[in-house]
Amino acid sequence: MKIKLLFSLLLLSAVAYAQSPGWQGKFEQLDQLLPTPNEYRSGSGAPGPRYWQQRADYVINAELNDVNQSITGSETITYFNNSPDVLKYLWLQLDQNINDKESNTLKTATSTVRDSIDTKSIASSLVLHDFDGGFKIKSVKDATGKALPYTINATMMRIDLPQALAPGQKFSFSVEWSFNINDRVKGYTTNDGRSGMEYFPKDGNYLYIIAQWFPRMCVYDDVVGWQNKQFLGQGEFTLTFGNYVVNLTVPADHIVAATGMVQNAKEVLTPEQYARFEKAKTSFDKPVIIATQQEAEQREKTKSTAKKTWKFYAENVRDFAFATSRKFIWDAQAVKIGDKTPLAMSYYPKEGNPLWEQESTKAVKYTLETYSKYTIDYPYPQATSVHAASLGMEYPMICFNYGRPLEDGTIPERTKWGMIGVIVHEVGHNFFPMIINSDERQWTWMDEGLNTFVQYRTQVENYPDMPQRRGPASTIVPYMKGNADLQRPLMVNSESVVRANFGNEQYAKCATGLNMLRETVMGPELFDKAFKEYASRWAFKHPKPADLFRTMEDASAVDLDWFWRGWFYTTDVCDQSIEQVRWLTVRTENSKVENKGVSAKRGDLASGSSTNQANDFSNGPQPITVLPTPDYFYGEFRSRVDDKAVLAKLENKNLYEVTLTNNGGLIMPVIIEWTYKDGSKELERIPAEIWRTNEQRITKVFVKDKEVTKVVLDPKMETTDISLEDNVFPKVQSPSKIDQLKKK
């Protein structure tokens, strides 16, 4: 009966505690929000013993028409059903259909017209360009040549199978298709499909960057079945791994960059270019120029009407993209990564020089080296950066990047750093999501945010003079102080994010969060081991958010549920403040150390006195009395605390009772900088769990040998605190002091 009564009292106490104004459950575990672990995905965040994923192999033959800017192609897809499910139909992505005039992207786009609007903007927003975009599907057939029924739903195509595909079976089918290549400068849709052409009026040539250019298999997985979210432009792609054999027919004087490695280099290159290409494979100190600017300028003039077919092979990739132009200069350099020597390569027109020849391949090299250190060794044979105006977009082994000098060759600092940053970012996408293959259509932060974090590490370690836009906590504070109605939690679908905040949220906020975990919450050693474990576990697989959250905790023994809950599931902000600091000293001359039935109440020993609540230390310390411990405080214990020894340790000490408030709702560690009377400083770090029993207001007493003259919260701006003026004691009286704190 007593046990039942005690349990009831404890339960009532817990309920009262949970319902108290200062407690909102920010330290609750995430178990009820995350998917239940199962045999496919374990509670540790690792793939389960029966984890599976599908596979799709492609053989593609395509021709680019440089006269009418179109592509015609055919493909044979072999789809492997590794799932435990029977499949009656297959779904393919038709992402080029975003350029169709009837696309949902155009129908759902909002727009306004203002006075003196420019022609480019109004033509794009009102769809005034005449362009016949989107896939033209000529046929869909099985391996015997028999037509297969199919249904197109905007950017998706369903193929009905002649008989259900059982687990362990494979099915081969072919698709014939064509489409017109969009002119990127005209902006047919909000994102141009991240692919298209650029025309150069001075020499009359085109530069093509081609992606989402063939019907591709949708992902079928253990969490959602068939991926069924339409391509509206903002959310990117979710794709299945496989092997690619791709034969690209282009004008004979074109240079082609693509996913994978060229298989017939001797046939498509001149003898001199082929010799340079072979030399580049062992050039570790600097790039070798394979196709020179002089050769490119000559090709621009002659404009061959003959054709050549470039043959590529790519193994275990999730997509295939390419770029082609007679304007391309091409350089390459070998990089040592573990036991492999991949090529870092760059393709660019003369309009990109001298900047691209100086910086592009070097940036590719630095990216492969640094990302390999923090994740896994780069597994592919090459990584390519292609120059394309006003763009940054990524695909396996190839990416398209902006950064064009002025016409006189002048390179503004902003252009240089912007170009280096976008190359590091887009090449880094080879790791997230091309290898650690997350669902970009649903969880943008899982590739953009994680990638931006490692981009920041790469830039800091290789470009110490480079201004950093995303990563440091201080850089995201302006966004977090912005309009809360326009902000979204990280854990939302990509299309729900307000376009104006897309970069701040899905890139910068996630990257900042990871950087805070590394530098402030976990420490570099624990973080790096856990992050590398996540990359290793999920390389060439399909991770979900829960797999990242669980792995980071499993591999570090750090409970981070409070962090995921606050930073990823809410739009709360960090706004800690110093409400009060009380300076106390122990009065020892009148303290009684003999324990002779002294009657004392707990409240008498508490520090709740409201005296000495000045806004500075000018009134001096408040003396307090420490009494001997009454016998009944010891309960059944026979031994006693040495009262004299305790008092001796407090003699001549300064006690500082600090009361902090959390005004923004976001839980963060407490970082306090103490400035002493002798001018010295001390930085004290307190884990976020200090808020676990009251998430709004806490008080803690600190014992110091020296007299304190100043207390500052988060002096290095590590926690994204949006209000610095209330982080200082004595209270800051003038804006100049706030400015000084910000400059620190």
Automatic annotation (TrEMBL):
Residues 595-623 are annotated as: Disordered. One of its GO terms (molecular function) is peptide binding. Keywords: Aminopeptidase, Hydrolase, Protease, Signal. Residues 1-18 form the signal peptide. Residues 607-622 have a biased composition (Polar residues). The keyword Zinc does not apply. Residues 368-567 form the Peptidase M1 membrane alanine aminopeptidase domain. GO terms for cellular component: cytoplasm; extracellular space; membrane. Gene3D superfamilies: Neutral Protease Domain 2 (1.10.390.10). CDD domains: M1_APN_like. The keyword Zinc does not apply. InterPro entries: Peptidase_M1_aminopeptidases (IPR050344), Peptidase_M1_dom (IPR014782), Peptidase_M4/M1_CTD_sf (IPR027268). GO terms for biological process: peptide catabolic process. PANTHER family: PROTEASE M1 ZINC METALLOPROTEASE (PTHR11533), PUROMYCIN-SENSITIVE AMINOPEPTIDASE-RELATED (PTHR11533:SF174). This is Aminopeptidase. It comes from Chryseotalea sanaruensis. The lineage of its organism: Bacteria, Pseudomonadati, Bacteroidota, Cytophagia, Cytophagales.
